[in-house]
Amino acid sequence: MPHVEVPPGVPGIRSLFEFRPDTARPLLELAEVLLRGDSSLSTGERELIATYVSRLNECRFCEMSHASFAALQLEGGWDTVDAVRADPATAEIGDKLRALLAIAGAVRVSGRAVTDDLVAAARAAGATSVEIHDTVLIAAAFCMFNRYVDGLATWAPEDRAAYLPRARVVAERGYLAEPG
Length: 180
Description:
It is a single chain. By secondary structure, this protein is an all-alpha fold. It has one domain (12-173): AhpD-like (Up-down Bundle), CATH 1.20.1290. The chain is 66% helix and 0% strand. Helix 1 packs across helix 2 (21-36), helix 3 runs antiparallel to helix 4 (60-73) and helix 4 packs across helix 5 (77-86).
């Protein structure tokens, strides 16, 4: 049961956004910039980074939401998402994305866990300074989002299909688009 009075039947962060619309707007704007703004990383790749961090943080709602967003925007769809969720080291993704996911995983532990070796590996795989920066910021932001969602004990649907309607809206129109 959520720790604050949220609208019944509204899952995860969406319920918290309805509870506090004044804080929802800047958080949605942050997600829009990080995950859909100008970047040499695709929206699907950035959503995959958010998915991976959320999985490591065991935040079911964020993991499944962003997995759905990524699946709609990656060439490999759910196969790619599920492979990364299982083990990025064996997933059929590029070396650059694999190195960036390693950085994101380190951020999830601690900002100080991002080592010179991890950054050097990402650079060797072709990552730019902006891509490394954005990966760290996405991972840090999702640690916050995950703790917000789980810290207030929001509800998360178990069925993957429950996430698809919002995923279609986000994939087509972005985070600032009204649901429904």
